[in-house]
Amino acid sequence: MIERLMVKILVLDDEPFMLKLLARMLTNQGFTSVALCESGRAALDRVDGVDTRPNLILLDLNMPEMDGIEFVRHLVERNYTGSLILISGEDERMLQTVEKLVQAHKITVLGHIHKPVKPEALSALLEKWAPSSLDSPKAQKVYGADEVRAAISNGELVNYYQPKVTVATGKVAGVETLVRWRHPVHGIVPPDQFIGVAEANGFIDDLTRVVLTGALAQAKAWQEAGLTLRVAVNVSMDSLASLDFLDFVTGLTAKTGIPPQQIVLEVTESQLMGDARIPLEILTRLRLKRFRLSIDDFGTGHSTLAQLRDIPFDELKIDQGFVHRAWTVETLRAMYDASLALARQLGMEVVAEGVEDRDDWDLLLRTGCDLAQGAFISRPMPAEDLPGWMDVWQERVRTGFANDISR
Length: 407
Description:
By secondary structure, the chain is an alpha/beta fold. Helix content is 42%, strand content 20%.
């Protein structure tokens, strides 16, 4: 309760009745510092005040004079670090679009609620608020090109592995390799803090080769321990623009003794653009040698259908943005169904990414998706943790997830 007493909430809505209703709901849930504003200008005055700046804003979208979207832009100009809950009578697709816009502005959005607001819907979103929301976010460390290049050269990159499981049986089918940086000072650094640096400075191919080498060595170790898994590795376009990449991959596979059928090369389809002649040659020849090719993050880039037409992929990964909550959001469900149906017609295996909870899993089970990947199953882990996790996972499958509380 102490956190709720501390949090400052601002409710912005041009309807006096709605302001009073929301104020009563918040008070009933233990929030005592609630300010009510009928206009964007009045709300911005409170945002500008040192003592009145809110930690959480309940924002109506459709208002005269200054609508909610314009209000968000003013929050960005003021470097607002709190959270938002969107409230509107607009349709679901409109609310989803605005939510994406707010996220693009790097402002935390807890979710959206349709009018008329129900207390239980508001309560569910307020539960997402955490005490850390009161603190200003720490600035993310920015790494330079020389630091990242040195990390590659010094062997500081390590592979984590996220399981992929067969939906129909729960059997572990394989893993996706996800690189991390074991920084000597800062500990484990996530890929979004150094992959872009490597891409921008022309050494992503070096990074890709290090990751692939480590992944195949690990696949060999698992094989010798009696564990046969497909191992997927993300492949950069810089690698696919170099003709010797095929020789590197085939040579490495032959050296480790891993069958090509157990290696999945995942290519992000938004990267497959421009002059595709060399990548097309490399990918086609890899496919002829029985390596598996996967089109990653399907539906998020350009010329998606053209890539499926031109390149012999045999696996399609439905992007997590179309999987999580597709069981309840009509737009997401339509995109998920369309992706699944397209893959089926093309004879491709389908992996659904972003399976976050039991409801996501149940959707995949009902619709006959082949493979699942996501936090409901497991987050990425070091290789040595996989055998222990598999024992726990098999028990979860055996009991039908009876002990899970993810619904």
